[in-house]
């Protein structure tokens, strides 16, 4: 499809918003301003934005421990996300969940998840609900290469394929499960190969190419809405930062990191936009300035927000 | 008497599994294929085989299943080169193999893989084994047989004139500079990005230039083939002008533009191309797909042209090579097996 300038710059802005959000969180975490753990999405922005740009109101996404990018791509409020990461009461979980539990069901964001591979059956369930309700909605699950070794992956793909559920399984293959390189944790290099075992299409795409991801996800979503069942998309990508903030990354080399930084998805997309005369450097700088301001406002919002009161200790934790 | 092997670990996995019904060719199956190729080569007395290193590790895996190097009489070696996990690996490997004096390069991939290998192979003949998606250039051949054919060429048991074919190619010029080649077809698309590479939306096709075509082909060459059969040896090609979708085209060509993807392509005109004849790309900006993959982004104001050349890579004709070997008595022995 041909994109309008507005659409292209919209996707560019979203990737930049994720990058700025994550780099700001990294900075604040290093200053001790953020409690708990954070796993950052820097370098993988094209996957979340390329996939979520194909989704509508009735669709769901299920995320991972590295979920900030998915939330932002789905349209979550960066103010409320930042407040949640700060553990403040104005956050998505009223400050009790932190980074790995940010969710907004109204938005179709079934949440980040601290358990590796736990989003797969959740997405299959959401897809089942959509199919049952006949609302034409689809569900998307993001997960990593490591998660593709878990039983949840195989169970979810098995059920989804038997029941032809409208779900798209998006593997963000960033080459490492925590510190374990892919070559050490599975005897294949393309997670997409595993689709064959479930009789569904599996494709590998360059996860740092926004348009490659967009096209593959678009076709998979179309297929799901048409009642043709699930698809497995493997996006080959790389996280620029460690598994978690504070990770010394002794399991990978500087050279490898630098090679992947040259393939930065945001840089690649902006270069192409400039080549096409779709935008100007000034316009891109203006977008970047707006993004910076938006994240600054989010941090101020988080800082202003109070911590939960002691009396709230058990509120929203248990169901009545 | 050495042979090179370039196996593309990424072939057979792209979006055509989703937008068409293309075969998934997983890498473990390619490993089996490689073992059969090695055994075929070994049986004919090839002295050395060079492998391209790759991120999947075809070399080690293939040898693991053959009791390692000890399972073969010939020597096997891995090229000393970095792995970038992109198409540049195949081009560089082909160049290194040619420099090392290999007599034949066996490729595992589709049209796209062979296009890249051809850029580095120079005068070394290719034996292209199909493991990709759009496979006009490579052939469906059993691995053992491919190994035998390459072995016959490499050891000189069959002469080049009895085994090799000269193919054609297209040279893509951007602002008068050659920037790329295609072995089968170059397709001009009204597109903005290379994206997921494959071509499946007929509505975007503006022009087709091809070195050959048969109605039995899969991919854009089938559009050409639907108009006229052009063989691998015919010293000509074809250009086709494609109409806007929805316009009243003079006629349509029903063609298998992808696996399971039979489409009606609206044609406004077509013509034969002679050697060194250039076709101007009519509209920019556009994207040019070469051998089924969107590869070249042409910006507004740039000038692109596509030229037919009769100086494409040499390929091993498997059927003819084996027949020539049989006629020469290569397979006949009087000595009983040990």
UniProtKB/TrEMBL annotation, chain A:
NCBIfam families: PDH_E1_alph_y. Coiled coil: none annotated. GO terms for molecular function: pyruvate dehydrogenase (acetyl-transferring) activity. Residues 13-308 form the Dehydrogenase E1 component domain. This is Pyruvate dehydrogenase E1 component subunit alpha. It catalyses: N(6)-[(R)-lipoyl]-L-lysyl-[protein] + pyruvate + H(+) = N(6)-[(R)-S(8)-acetyldihydrolipoyl]-L-lysyl-[protein] + CO2. The gene is pdhA. Its cofactor is thiamine diphosphate.
TrEMBL record, chain B:
Keywords: Kinase, Transferase. Transmembrane segments: none annotated. This is Predicted polyphosphate-or ATP-dependent NAD kinase. InterPro entries: AcoX-like, AcoX_kinase, NAD/diacylglycerol_kinase_sf, NADK. Pfam families: NAD_kinase. One of its GO terms (molecular function) is NAD binding. One of its GO terms (biological process) is NADP+ biosynthetic process.
